[in-house]
Design brief:
The complex is a heterodimer of chains A (882) and B (225).
Chain A: H1 2-12, H2 14-51, E1 57-61, H3 67-77, E2 80-91, E3 93-98, E4 101-104, E5 108-113, H4 117-120, E6 126-130, E7 135-138, H5 139-145, E8 152-156, E9 163-172, H6 176-179, E10 198-202, H7 203-216, E11 221-229, H8 238-255, E12 260-264, H9 265-305, H10 307-319, H11 324-357, H12 363-392, H13 397-401, H14 411-414, H15 417-433, E13 440-441, E14 450-451, H16 457-480, H17 483-493, H18 497-506, H19 508-547, E15 551-554, H20 565-568, E16 574-587, E17 590-597, E18 613-614, H21 618-627, E19 631-635, H22 636-641, E20 649-655, E21 662-673, E22 684-688, H23 689-696, E23 703-708, H24 712-722, E24 730-733, H25 734-738, H26 744-747, H27 750-779, H28 781-789, H29 794-830, H30 846-879
Helix pairs in contact in A: 1-11, 2-9, 2-11, 2-12, 2-27, 3-8, 8-9, 9-12, 9-19, 9-27, 11-12, 15-16, 16-18, 16-19, 16-29, 17-18, 17-29, 18-29, 19-27, 19-29, 19-30, 27-29, 27-30, 28-30, 29-30
Chain B: E1 6-13, E2 24-31, E3 36-40, H1 47-54, E4 62-66, E5 81-84, H2 96-106, H3 113-124, H4 139-152, E6 157-161, H5 169-186, E7 189-193, H6 197-201, E8 205-210, E9 213-218, E10 222-223
Parallel strand pairs in B: 3-7, 3-8, 5-6, 6-7
Antiparallel strand pairs in B: 1-2, 1-4, 8-9, 9-10
Helix pairs in contact in B: 2-3, 2-4, 3-4, 4-5
The chains are: A alpha+beta (882), B alpha/beta (225).
């Protein structure tokens, strides 16, 4: 009997079984792929974070400590690959003579490094000019002293005679904050600014210069060990890696207690990434779970579309005396078949895809996710295909045979559950989005992390409420033949519209299901696409904030980039080049970055977000700066530190090109800047370039911001080639900085997740519309044969098909786009913490939405055409049954 | 003959691409305007197949069928020929009244179609079924509605397969009275496949089908061929 049933399923119900199998495959594949990516993205976040730390540990010996014992303790505390000794000395300043003038800096630092240090820690020192062998000078110091390779610099030692050294190279210290950090300071202490003046000497030379100082003033010198740990042994999950590294650092602290202090840079980085990792998980949940739920719902819908046939088959078996157990056994064949075949197809496809898209994918790590997805597939298949049978067997045969019937008002409609859910979602959303909550909490230094899962409630309730509300309004519209239903039936059915409409009214349960499934799948695709586009847009804003523009030519005061503008302006792919001064100014005793801009043209090359400024929009702030020649925008921190009020006169000290000395220049405080392209996060100033040029007698601009009309990386390469040989200039494109930005926004690799989801959304939307229609039509072949048998012409038959297809497409699309946009808006609001700076508007990816609607439309057309073509072939056969 | 509604010449029918034995063999027959013909014969003798061929729903494997007074096969339905099938053949998503009006709507004569449907229901004494869905009807009710649907458009010929099969004899007689009355008003020829001698007895001619062959018997003349 079982074999007969199985053969019958293949022979006569193949389309139905294939449809359900496809639905199960979609769901299982989505669950599996999301699982693979969740595991893979955490691992890649850890490896990226670890790779981005220049020095894992800085171990600072207290004066007089046993350095050999500290070195041994480091080896015992953790597996290490590199340990370099670095010597630090405080100086009273540096001095150099250029022509007739003598330049003297304020206090500075002189470092002693080994010959291999640059090779061991390549991210610490970047050569700008000259050679790395010998005495190196930081670019700002070189600029202050007007020296370069080959020049003499005097080191002013406190209490000792100056010592003169010859500079061999000018370098940039990209990681100066960490290199000169205060080790052992209390956690709440303000971060120590790196010194403005730095000289690096070979260890032996450092000893020659500073051993006397160490002896005379031991407090002015210190020794650090810079350590790189063995990264291969770290756990792949950020939280576990953080716990491991922190425990090892504590172990070292215990071993060297009283002898040395430990700065755990790697732990701090992993600490930050823990939060990002949780954000990643939250994103996976926010974006992935609705997809899984909708895929399951689509599968249920596809399964339900064959319900009439199954009912008829079942009724026949019951009439012939089959027992409930026998019927259940036979009914189980279809879900088992669909789950096994669908699961196998899905896992093979998901693994193949993950292998291509995820470099860190391993079958072993993915086993758990794969098995979980397969189990979910079986559960879904049984819930969709077997559960209704079990329920139906409790009813009598006559009741079980009914297919169209008069739909009762479901209990949830009578209880207004949909509106209650939507109201609750709105209330919770308002509460969570307006109370400054933090969805992810990973307190610094504390191993425990938490996610505010309450934030998931509002979108979950909204999804559920929307799905039910869709059911209500579509059902009501069909029952009453309201406006859209009337228009669509008139457009698709012409003179038959009234009778087609009445036919649709009696099939509203089936059509409502098709419209709701299509709308939810489109809503899922729309919300993911809008969120993704907004997220990508903000990632670009974030990257542009760091890099300045698509491509930026960074120069120095000694080697400004603006004279090279003419050399590059004719390169193809350039839309605009805007110069920007990058100087330094003293605010009191604090040396800050000063950016001189032309407020009228700056936005030709870079985007100024409203979020960069406080109290007014970017446009208003730029207008204010333009109309106030001596105006200056001050960072929030400086405003707070110096208790500034708008309109205050501020005296800044800027270096004048005539005498290379700092002179007081008056400015007026006209606005607060939170962020600015290329500016550091803490303190900076923005002023009119023309005013700065006039007051410093130096019209040059250190940087050039370039807007690309095409590929930024290619343009950067072209500019780099054109400027090759120009000293002190660096060319960077926006793409090269994206991966090193420390914000949570760009550290979560959303692209792979959303690529998968967007592809699934298109498949689901097309399956919801086309597959459900096709299976529904297939289920009603007999009804269409009746129409043919009483004289319906092909175009009249098509009128019935097109009306149903039109309703599913138009109502599904419109309602789906509406719900999807609302969900995207909710997600962006709820996940504000992911965005830095927060987006000003949602970005609508019209191309994707258009492609998705095209796919839905094509699937509807295919369903109608295939059904119609099949109907003409099958009508003779069907007539024999009439 | 040019006065026939339908004329079959030496037709035969096989299914399954000619593999199966012939259901009908060398049958020749014709239906004239206003005819009352019963098609009788044992189950599986080919009565339904013959009706489908005469209605133009299916083509014979051999022989020719023409509709001299009705035109070509493509224009027969819905206006000129209607078929009542043996099994339930109402369009499930429409209520009874709409089902009856459906041939009129398909023929582009939708004006007043539902009113005409209500009138027919009243004449058959089943007006209370107007808003019922097909699956809410009993077998007998569905048969009466199907016949009402076939007659609604006043076609030249109705071919009905066991139209009284699920009716008791008294109801069947009343039902036939109404059918004859409406058919007579519209000049509709009736070809009814039936097992019921009482039904066959009310027809002017009886076609007996046995093992695929047709024997025609006139009620007045006796068996002719």
């Amino acid at each position: 009997m079982m074999r007969l049933w199985l053969a019958g399923l293949f022979r006569h119900r193949f389309a139905r079984v294939a449809g359900t199998t496809l639905g199960i495959a979609l769901t299982v594949a989505l669950i599996a792929v999301l699982g693979f990516f969740l595991v893979g993205s955490s691992a890649s976040m850890t490896s990226r974070a670890v790779a981005g730390v220049p020095i894992d540990w800085q171990v600072e010996a207290v004066p007089g400590a046993d350095l050999a014992a500290i070195r041994t303790a480091i080896d015992k505390a953790a597996p290490v690959t590199t340990v370099d000794k670095v010597l630090y000395a405080g100086t009273a300043g540096f001095q150099a003579t250029t022509g007739q003038t003598v330049q003297t800096t304020g206090p500075g630092k002189a470092l002693g490094i080994g010959a291999l240090y640059q090779a061991d820690f390549p991210k610490e020192i970047r050569l700008l000019s000259g050679s790395l062998k010998g005495v190196l000078i930081a670019q700002q110091t070189a600029s202050n002293l007007h020296v370069g390779p080959g020049d003499q610099v005097s080191i002013l030692r406190p209490g000792l005679t100056p010592v003169s050294v010859t500079v061999t190279g000018v370098v940039d210290l990209p990681d100066a904050d960490s290199l000169f950090q205060g080790i052992g300071l209390p956690k709440q202490a303000k971060p120590q600014a790196p010194p403005d003046n730095v000289l690096l000497l070979p260890s032996a030379q450092w000893h020659q210069v500073f051993d006397a100082q160490s002896a005379a003033r031991p407090g002015t010198t210190r020794t650090q060990f810079h350590v790189r740990l063995e990264h291969g042994r770290l756990p792949s999950q950020p939280t576990a890696a953080f716990t491991d590294v922190t425990a090892a650092a504590h172990n070292l602290e215990a071993r060297v207690a009283g002898q040395a202090l430990v700065a755990n840079n790697l732990g701090a980085r992993l600490d930050a990434v823990r939060g990002d990792s949780l954000y990643a998980m939250v994103l996976f949940l926010f974006l992935g779970l609705p997809g899984i739920a909708i895929a399951a719902a689509v599968t249920a819908g596809v399964g339900a579309s064959g319900a009439d046939r199954r009912r008829a088959d079942r009724a026949l078996l019951r009439i012939r005396g089959a027992t409930s157990r026998r019927i259940l056994g036979l009914a189980a064949v279809e879900p088992i078949l669909a789950a096994v075949a669908g699961g196998a197809i899905a896992l093979a496809a998901a693994a193949g895809f993950a292998r291509l898209a995820l470099p860190s994918f391993s079958a072993g790590a993915a086993l758990g996710s794969g098995l979980g997805a397969l189990a979910a597939g079986f559960a879904l298949a049984f819930a969709v295909l077997l559960l209704p049978v079990a329920r139906a067997l409790r009813r009598d045969v006559t009741g079980d045979r009914r297919s169209v019937g008069r739909p009762d008002t479901p209990w949830w409609q009578r209880a207004w559950l949909d509106l209650l859910l939507l109201a609750a979602a709105g209330l919770l959303f308002w509460q969570t989005a307006n109370t400054g909550y933090q969805i992810v909490l990973a307190p610094e230094g504390v191993p425990a992390t938490s996610v505010d899962y309450k934030a998931f409630i509002a979108p979950t309730l909204f999804w559920a409420g929307s799905a039910l509300f869709l059911g209500r309004i579509v059902s009501v519209a069909l029952a009453r033949g309201l406006g859209p239903v009337r228009w669509i039936t008139i457009a698709t059915s012409g003179p038959l519209a009234p009778v087609v409409r009445r036919a649709l009214t009696h099939q509203r349960r089936r059509i409502t299901l098709g419209v709701a499934m299509t709308a939810l799948a489109i809503a899922f695709g729309t919300s993911t696409a809008i969120f993704n586009a907004t997220y990508a847009g903000q990632a670009r804003v974030d990257a542009e904030l760091t890099n300045g523009a698509d491509v930026t030519v960074f120069g120095t005061m000694a080697h400004p980039a603006s004279p090279q503008r003419d050399a590059i302006k004719d390169l193809p792919g350039i839309r605009a080049i805007v110069p920007m001064q990058h100087r330094y100014a003293y605010v009191g005793t604090d040396l800050q970055d000063l950016f001189g801009i032309n407020p009228a043209t700056i936005n030709q090359a870079t985007h100024l977000s409203n979020a960069y400024f406080r109290g007014a929009s970017a446009r208003r702030i730029m207008e204010r700066l333009k109309s106030t020649p001596d105006g200056v925008l001050v960072s929030e921190e400086t405003v707070k530190d110096f208790q500034l009020s708008l309109g205050d006169r501020i005296n800044l000290r800027l270096m004048n090109a005539k005498d290379h000395q700092y002179h007081t220049v008056p400015f007026h405080f006209i606005g607060v800047a939170r962020e600015f392209p290329t500016a550091p996060k803490d303190s900076f100033l923005v002023a009119n370039a023309s005013y700065v040029a006039k007051m410093t007698a130096d019209p040059a601009a250190e940087d050039l911001l370039v807007r690309a009309s095409g590929d930024s990386a290619a343009l950067a390469r072209a500019i780099g080639t054109r400027l090759a040989g120009q000293p002190g200039l660096t060319v960077k494109d926006i793409g090269s900085v994206t991966h090193i930005i420390g914000s949570s926004l760009t550290s979560v690799n959303l692209a792979s997740l959303t690529t998968i989801e967007l592809a699934f959304a298109v498949l689901m939307a097309a399956a919801s519309a086309g597959l459900m229609l096709a299976l529904g039509f297939n289920d009603r072949r007999r009804a269409f044969a009746i129409l043919t048998a009483i004289g319906a012409r092909p175009r009249q038959l098509r009128a019935f098909l097109w009306a149903e297809g039109g309703l599913v497409f138009w109502l599904g699309s419109l309602l789906g786009l509406l719900i999807g946009t609302i969900v995207a808006w909710m997600l962006v609001k709820l996940l504000t913490g992911v965005f830095d700076p927060p987006p000003e508007t949602l970005i609508l990816p019209l191309a994707y939405i258009g492609a998705m609607l095209l796919a839905v439309g094509a699937s509807v057309i295919a369903a109608v055409r295939l059904t119609h073509a099949g109907e003409r072939k099958q009508v003779t056969e069907m007539l024999r049954e009439l | 003959m040019l006065d026939s509604l339908v004329e079959a010449e030496n037709i035969a029918k096989t299914y399954d691409g000619g593999e199966a034995p012939e259901v009908l063999r060398d049958i020749s027959c014709r239906v004239l305007p206003g005819d009352r013909i019963a098609v009788a014969g044992p189950s599986g003798s080919g009565k339904s197949t013959l009706l489908h061929i005469l209605a133009g729903l299916t083509a014979p494997s051999r022989g020719t069928v023409t509709w001299p007074l009705l035109g070509i096969r493509d224009v027969l339905m819905p206006a000129r020929v209607q078929v009542v099938f043996q099994s339930p053949s109402l369009f499930p998503p429409l209520d009874v009244a709409d089902n009856i009006a459906l041939p009129l709507l398909l023929a582009g004569r939708g004006e007043g179609a539902r009113a005409k449907a209500m009138d027919l229901l009243a004449r058959f004494g089943i007006e209370e079924l107007a808003t019922k869905l097909p699956e809410e009807l009993s077998g007998g009710q569905a048969q009466r509605v199907s016949m009402a649907r076939a007659l609604s458009i006043a076609p030249e010929m109705v071919l009905a397969d066991e139209p009284t099969g699920q009716l008791d004899s008294a109801t069947a007689q009343r039902f036939l009275d109404t059918v004859f009355e409406i058919a007579a008003e519209a000049g509709t020829a009736l070809v009814l496949a039936t097992h019921d001698p009482a039904v066959a007895g009310r027809m002017s001619r009886v076609w007996m089908i046995d093992h695929g062959s047709l024997f025609v018997r006139s009620q007045s003349d006796g068996e002719t061929a």
